[in-house]
Design a protein that fits this description.
The protein is mainly alpha-helical. The chain is 63% helix and 0% strand.
Length: 208
Amino acid sequence: MVCLPLDTESDAFIAQLLAGDETAFCRLMDENHSLMLVVARAIVGEASAEEVVQDAWIAIHKALPQFEQRASLKTWILTIVSNRAKTCLKQQSRYVSLADMDDNLPYYLSGQYFNDNGSWQRPPQAWGMNSPDAILEEAELRKCIDYAIRQLPSLQKSVFLLRDIEQLSFQDICNILQVSNSNVKVLLHRARLKLMEIITRYQEIGEC
């Protein structure tokens, strides 16, 4: 019988972590390090992101015995790296509140494609395939989308990955990135529209 690895949000896996299982902690690092870097870059920039994440892992390791599971393990981890990044910026005396962004949705985002819950308001008509899954099956298009995600501004990329890939709640994203709910929606819409442009262009001409 093949024993599948435990889900990192499962009670059994968390019990291993709380018991000091270093193998479980290494797996936790493997699964979350890249996303932590994304969050750190959105707050502190490229130069200090790796240092912030390394510092956060030390803090996480020390704090694990106090983890009370009031939030998911992933949210707890990302909150720690976010707080470390914000502390780093304050120490560098160049902290700028992300909440200073314009709260107003641009006219071309307001309800044009997505509703407040993030669902399609009006799907693009040009996409010729039957479903988003069918679109993503094309290897070349996946490369285009991966490239587009990498090119997004750091804060847009963080919001997109946290919401659409990691499925975190809007409130958790607001807390992690210290951005208002309306700004999270603006950033998410902008990221989605950029990816829509890539997919539509690919459908029309077969390249990015």
